[in-house]
Amino acid sequence: MADEPLVLGIETSCDETGVGIVRGTTLLADAIASSVDEHARFGGVVPEVASRAHLEAMVPTIERALTEAGVTARDLDGIAVTAGPGLAGALLVGVSAAKAYAYALGKPLYGVNHLASHICVDQLEHGPLPEPTMALLVSGGHSSLLLAPDITADVRPMGATIDDAAGEAFDKIARVLDLGFPGGPVIDRLAREGDPEAIAFPRGLTGPRDPAYDFSFSGLKTAVARWIEARRHAGEEVPVRDVAASFQEAVADVLTRKAVRACQDEGVDHLMIGGGVAANSRLRAMAAERCERAGIRLRVPRPKLCTDNGAMVAALGAEMVARNRPASDWELSADSSLPVTDPHVPGGPHPGRVHDHDHVHEISKDNLYS
Ligand code: KG4
Ligand code: ZN
């Protein structure tokens, strides 16, 4: 609807330069420039390479998003940007760009949390999020179970990985199997032709005395690597498809088991899954099966909205505007370890101060963006 906030969101926390535009909970544009190919030969994201790629991609990606949405920068009601967590240098490029556009255009600036954005993006696919929402976020950088009574102001950690992120485990196992980077998509594909019960790999932190909602993938990773090594040492062929399927089964089993349990314990009757690993076909299928059995409604955005993108930042920014949250001030800075409990970042030394945007508009109108 025309009276809903029109917000542009910028995401640069890792290797994706994402610029999205939404109106309320409607997606208008989702432009992405990825530097993933530039990192492939290193087997992981190189921060300096990512920062430079963001710098080069920023303006063209913003222009592309505006064209795709059929709006001009002047039409926007606000500019949102990932303030953290993520790679410090990469975040800084996005925050600087967002500040420059917001200042020049006289628009309010909203520094938002990357993890809360991963949750909020589901509004673009399935409509307003019920409150509270239980969310399982699984990607190359994070694996957490979060309870969000209010996505703009109150996000509570239930559990997190104590070592590797789920996506990191996929990437490391793919490296051991010489399958390239990133590992998730190729393991997913090979696993479809393998037997998930061929090898009984360990399920980390599932003992009776273990923390109920925390994850651990490093033991699984070591067990898979040792299993492969033993076959190679004995001169036997490694059944790559069975290894991929059995490894993937162990990850999906632990993630879905703990997420469903958290919903039941907290009396939450729906679960959202986000982050790059939410694209995994077995995780999606197992979650659907277990949620249905437990009477829990499952919400998983389409894969393009699960991986890092600008639309998710715009979605959370629009929610901030809709709920009259204060804009961030011009001291807003990137915070590489921004806690998940801060969905919204007010700014620098004067948290909560609302900037005088009318004044900024005066400057911009005449001098900066005309
Ligand atoms: O959310 P994302 O794009 O970036 C981060 O914030 O990390 O997630 C990337 C991660 C990588 O580790 C990648 O291997 C994993 O998500 N991934 C998958 C699949 N597609 C991407 N993991 C398992 N199955 C997939 N289909
Ligand atoms: Zn992410």
TrEMBL record:
<dbReference type="GO" id="GO:0061711">
    <property type="term" value="F:tRNA N(6)-L-threonylcarbamoyladenine synthase activity"/>
</dbReference>
<dbReference type="GO" id="GO:0002949">
    <property type="term" value="P:tRNA threonylcarbamoyladenosine modification"/>
</dbReference>
<dbReference type="Pfam" id="PF00814">
    <property type="entry name" value="TsaD"/>
</dbReference>
<keyword id="KW-0012">Acyltransferase</keyword>
<feature type="binding site">
    <location>
        <position position="171"/>
    </location>
    <ligand>
        <name>substrate</name>
    </ligand>
</feature>
<keyword id="KW-0819">tRNA processing</keyword>
<feature type="binding site">
    <location>
        <position position="188"/>
    </location>
    <ligand>
        <name>substrate</name>
    </ligand>
</feature>
<feature type="binding site">
    <location>
        <position position="308"/>
    </location>
    <ligand>
        <name>Fe cation</name>
    </ligand>
</feature>
<dbReference type="InterPro" id="IPR022450">
    <property type="entry name" value="TsaD"/>
</dbReference>
<dbReference type="InterPro" id="IPR043129">
    <property type="entry name" value="ATPase_NBD"/>
</dbReference>
<dbReference type="InterPro" id="IPR017860">
    <property type="entry name" value="Peptidase_M22_CS"/>
</dbReference>
<keyword id="KW-0808">Transferase</keyword>
<comment type="similarity">
    <text>Belongs to the KAE1 / TsaD family.</text>
</comment>
<dbReference type="InterPro" id="IPR000905">
    <property type="entry name" value="Gcp-like_dom"/>
</dbReference>
<feature type="binding site">
    <location>
        <position position="114"/>
    </location>
    <ligand>
        <name>Fe cation</name>
    </ligand>
</feature>
<feature type="binding site">
    <location>
        <position position="280"/>
    </location>
    <ligand>
        <name>substrate</name>
    </ligand>
</feature>
<dbReference type="GO" id="GO:0005506">
    <property type="term" value="F:iron ion binding"/>
</dbReference>
<keyword id="KW-0963">Cytoplasm</keyword>
<feature type="binding site">
    <location>
        <position position="184"/>
    </location>
    <ligand>
        <name>substrate</name>
    </ligand>
</feature>
<comment type="function">
    <text>Required for the formation of a threonylcarbamoyl group on adenosine at position 37 (t(6)A37) in tRNAs that read codons beginning with adenine. Is involved in the transfer of the threonylcarbamoyl moiety of threonylcarbamoyl-AMP (TC-AMP) to the N6 group of A37, together with TsaE and TsaB. TsaD likely plays a direct catalytic role in this reaction.</text>
</comment>
<dbReference type="GO" id="GO:0005737">
    <property type="term" value="C:cytoplasm"/>
</dbReference>
<feature type="binding site">
    <location>
        <begin position="137"/>
        <end position="141"/>
    </location>
    <ligand>
        <name>substrate</name>
    </ligand>
</feature>
<protein>
    <recommendedName>
        <fullName>tRNA N6-adenosine threonylcarbamoyltransferase</fullName>
        <ecNumber>2.3.1.234</ecNumber>
    </recommendedName>
</protein>
<keyword id="KW-0408">Iron</keyword>
<feature type="domain" description="Gcp-like">
    <location>
        <begin position="27"/>
        <end position="314"/>
    </location>
</feature>
<dbReference type="InterPro" id="IPR017861">
    <property type="entry name" value="KAE1/TsaD"/>
</dbReference>
<feature type="binding site">
    <location>
        <position position="118"/>
    </location>
    <ligand>
        <name>Fe cation</name>
    </ligand>
</feature>
<feature type="compositionally biased region" description="Basic and acidic residues">
    <location>
        <begin position="353"/>
        <end position="370"/>
    </location>
</feature>
<feature type="region of interest" description="Disordered">
    <location>
        <begin position="333"/>
        <end position="370"/>
    </location>
</feature>
<keyword id="KW-0479">Metal-binding</keyword>
